Amino acid sequence: xxxxxxxxxxxxxxxxxxxxxKAYVSQSPHDCTLFETQRAFGPLEFLVETKQTFDVIVSIGxxxxxxxxxxxxxxxxxxxxxLVVVPMGSTNExxxxxxxxxxxxxxxxxxxxxxxxxxxxxxxxxxKHFIYVACFGNxxxxxxxxxxxxxxxxxxxxxxxxxxxxxxxxxxxEFIVSVDGYEFQDNYLFGLISNAYQVARVFRYPATDINxxxxxxxxxxxxxxxxxxxxxxxxxxxxxxxxxxxxFVKLKGKEIELIxxxxxxxxxxxxxxxxxxxxKISVLNKKLKVLL
Length: 292
Description:
By secondary structure, the protein is an alpha+beta fold. The chain has 2 domains: about 1-115, Probable inorganic polyphosphate/atp-NAD kinase, domain 1 (Rossmann fold, 3-Layer(aba) Sandwich); about 130-285, Tumour Suppressor Smad4. It is about 25% helix and about 40% strand. The protein contains 9 helices and 15 strands. The strands form 2 sheets. Strands 1, 2, 3, 4, 5, 6, 7, 8, 9, 12, 13, 14 and 15 form a 13-stranded mixed sheet that branches. The protein has a two-stranded antiparallel ribbon with strand order 10-11. Strand 3 (about 55-60), helix 3 (about 65-75) and strand 4 (about 80-85) form a beta-alpha-beta unit. It is elongated and about 65 Å long.
């Protein structure tokens, strides 16, 4: 069996992993390849450019590393490879949605020989794949603009330290939105298209509302308040996980389109996803095989 280890040494706990990976590779009965990500040559580039195929791909890093691994799998000859997720980032939201938590690297590597495969939906935004969230709007750049050293030191709270400096810079995002053919238009603070139980430790959904392989993603848009009172009501709804207020647009969809007059920045799985005035998001039902 051919096994690829994708290891991000820059992630929150990356410095502890290399020796454990080498120890496994040295005694493994499998044909193992270790790829250490670089700033300009990551999982996507490796999988697409090397044109190698693998039976199992072990992605070791944060949400961004796993996201780029899956993008590379979907764009290469590795669509049918099985994925092992080893969370080592500062937040690891995707791993939490999958219920993944390991006491040791040795424990996680046991999944390589597992027969328990779970099929999970994958998102596609224009020409990029993502695993759990595509979002736009205020504060959504914080996850990829926060300095790595700050994230490694303080973990998830570093995002809020950094984001606090942007409180006076709230912008208005006008979009024409289509969800499975249902079209509407408004001004928004931000919006999320997700396949997760929680996003950014702020937006949470009841477990009964979320199915990671139902062929639909959750759409949550937050309208721009026109008064300080309404703004406080939006914050209260977010805090209480209550999205019944008409300031929230909450839907499910398979095909989502967003059109704006300006090119807007997007966040994909915590990383910069590019700028565009037109975005089409499709749900690829049960396209990812994860060993759990």
